[in-house]
Amino acid sequence: DKGGWSSFMAKEVSEEPEAVANTLRGRIRDGEVVIPELDGLDDLFTGISRIIVIACGTAAYAGQVGKYAIEQWTRIPVDVELAHEFRYRDPVIGPDTLVVSISQSGETMDTLMAVKYAREHGAKTLSICNTQGATIPRESDAIVYTHAGPEVAVASTKAFVAQVTALYLMGLHVGRVRGVVPADEAAAHVAELEAIPGKIAQILEREQPRIEQFAHWMADTRSVLFLGRHVGYPIALEGALKLKELAYIHAEGFAAGELKHGPIALIEPGQPVFVIVPSPRQSAEMHKKVISSIEEIRARGARVIAIAEEGDAAVLPKADEVLRIPLAGPFFEPLLAVVPLHIFAMGLATAKGLDVDQPRNLAKSVTVE
Ligand code: M6R
């Protein structure tokens, strides 16, 4: 039931705040992350020296976002790999490896086969999944469910924010179990997480109509590029994937630092480029670098749509359009910056008269290899 929305996707984007809130529910006690499903499973986290996240598509981008915070909080090296690549390269894994799979459906065949492979080769396995009782969680040693609610539209939206939330919860849990995240620091991260649903709701309320308007104006666009740095990089990839699958437009995400290594050759007058601008409060250096990337592409005629935090005045004169997201702490911005990109892809597909719930050639759950 679309509940009065024009599509399941529109409904699911509107549910992004709840998807995060429901994934947090019952897992925070006195400012500390306590995941009841992981009770008694501390040995999954104490004896490991590395984490490999495996997933496909949007779930893999959630993994790439999660990597930064999990490494920082736990000081365990984290690799993120596409499930279908992982399995066919004879990866070096064993009892010191925790393989974390991420899957909305819990039925993606590539991810399932990778989890089985990991187990057979002695690794520990943890599943982050949105579907109770699905095959992947059943095949894993531990499960952290995302509670995004059923996702019907083929394009994954609310599941993505729930996956990042679950990864952050897991990271803080592992950090606590291993005694590496000081309690006050963990409490600050928890407070950031708890504030996310309200901030996503603000974006939906304040920016959605404007973004849909742009999308409408851009309905004839043939190519859109997305640039990001650090945690903004996987968000650029996610923005591009959503646009490809929903609006059938050539779209590519790049790490902003790669521009000079090739992609800048693509910039010609009128080329739309979304740029995810990192917070200047967190890293003045990274912020400066991204602003200079904007200058470089704009000098070559790009039309820049920046996603920047409120109050970042430096970006205003540089970009053609600025979409604002509320302030958030380090690592938490991706949970906000992705929302305008979901709205944009949906808006553009709608402006082209396409079926946003069921794009051509795609299935919600890819159960073949
Ligand atoms: O069910 P899963 O999370 O395992 O699905 C993984 C991908 O197939 C999925 O995220 C896909 O990329 C989406 N259609 C993207 O919107």
TrEMBL record:
GO terms for molecular function: glutamine-fructose-6-phosphate transaminase (isomerizing) activity. It comes from the Bacteria. Keywords: Aminotransferase, Cytoplasm, Glutamine amidotransferase, Repeat, Transferase. It is an enzyme of class 2 (transferase). Its main location: cytoplasm. It catalyses: D-fructose 6-phosphate + L-glutamine = D-glucosamine 6-phosphate + L-glutamate. The active site is at residue 364. It is found in: Cytoplasm. Residues 41-180, 214-359 form the SIS domain. Its EC number is 2.6.1.16. Homodimer. Catalyzes the first step in hexosamine metabolism, converting fructose-6P into glucosamine-6P using glutamine as a nitrogen source. This is Glutamine--fructose-6-phosphate aminotransferase [isomerizing]. It comes from Microbacterium gallinarum. The lineage of its organism: Bacteria, Bacillati, Actinomycetota, Actinomycetes, Micrococcales.
